[in-house]
Each structure stands twice: as structure tokens, then as C-alpha cells.
Amino acid sequence: MEWPSQSPDINLIEHLWEELERCVSGIGARNADQKFSQLQTAWAQIPKSVLTNLPRRCQAGIDSLGFAD
């Protein structure tokens, strides 16, 4: 499958995961429960505007038909 050379990055979930990873990187956890708690705290700190803008950003990616503007 061929992709446009300048296709937009519309994988918004990956962006959210990267933000969470940045928030908890360098913070040690002794077990999975501690790490889960850290992730929940980090998730709560993501600005609501980021989450409410997701549908608009998805639509912009769809409207671009896979090509950069």
C-alpha cells in the first residue's frame, strides 16, 4: 500500500499515550498497581481541551483525505 509522502499523523491515541508516558517517565513503580495509579493521576492532569478537541482533529484528518494541506 502506498502512502502519501506527507500524510498527516492522525493517530491521536498514540499522542495521548506519548503524553502519559512523558508524565510518568522517570517515576519508579514497585508494581503494576502503583504504575496504574501513576497513569490515572497523569490522565487526570491532561487538559480537558485536549480531549474535547479530539473529534475536531479526527475530522480534520478525514477531510484532508490523507494528504497534508
Automatic annotation (TrEMBL):
<dbReference type="InterPro" id="IPR036397">
    <property type="entry name" value="RNaseH_sf"/>
</dbReference>
<protein>
    <recommendedName>
        <fullName>Tc1-like transposase DDE domain-containing protein</fullName>
    </recommendedName>
</protein>
<dbReference type="GO" id="GO:0003676">
    <property type="term" value="F:nucleic acid binding"/>
</dbReference>
